Structure prediction request, 344 residues.
Amino acid sequence: MSTANTEPGNHPLSRAYGAISSSVQLLLDHFELDGAMLLERGGYAKAPVSGSVLFAFGRNYGIREGDEVRTTVRQRPEAAPAEARAPVFVAARALPSLIYLTDPEAAVWIEVKNNFKIGPIRVMAALSVIPKMPRMPEHQLVLFDPLPADLASSAIASALMGVEPLLGKVIEDSHVAYQREVLTSQVLSEAERDPLTGVLNRFGWERALDAAVQAEQGSLISAILFDLDNLKVVNDTAGHAAGDGYIRRFAEVLSAACRQGDIVARLGGDEFILLAPGMHAAAAREFSHRIEDRLAQDGVSASIGYATTTTPFEIEKLLAEADRLMYANKRYKKSLVLAGADSL
Prediction:
């Protein structure tokens, strides 16, 4: 799992920071340090310090959750070649997962998303939490302070040893909870999707509708109803497999035409609905004509009705109006077919 793909504030650890933030802040205050970051790293490595920020403690340096950061070391110009190759970070003897600077005068910067640098600072220590759980990334708590500083980074080792069990427990527990959430989300997603078309089923529609009703007051919203024409004829003449293909083609065309944020659901065997937040009546009418033409290119026909209102709204009234127009459209099509038959 990578925080790079996680919305800031929605990382599984974000709900667990309260358990560790006060402890880390006390540690910063005790040693009069300037700040700390909690990083997620792809694998165990003592140096360089880098990863994706899960949470920033201490003063505000412009670092945000989700930022990719790493330390950059700039050697003194007069440094000898051998000295320049010397490791900047070493592991503390008291705690193998604790690292600190070998040279207290080394100029260290924190690079944030390769765009700007914070520094010069001294990375006082970085506590690596190497999880016991398989496939769980290493996490690292990094303490830093501006140069110069009188405190030796090794003096923080004992304090961090006290933080490590709490930090490790919170991280592991939160990742267990995260995996449970992912599994629950997958199961719920499957339960609310129509297996034939992939759009929302009735259960998914009702859940999505609950969120739509909570939209900002006064917002426009349109409902567009679709009732497939000739599905019974297709089933009777070509078989149910052909009928399923007819339904799938319709759903594919409709889904491709939708905007981000639109809600598409299959309410019954041949009845579909599109709920379009922010769409006014003229746009709903234009969409209906456009989708009808596009469906005809794929050999599919549907009767369409639409209605527009503002939030908060009563879904029953909105659907009743769309349903009225949809059946008027269906009657009109039948009248054209009958008129054509009579002229033969």
The first strand starts at residue 35 and ends at 41. The chain has two domains: 3-188, 202-342.
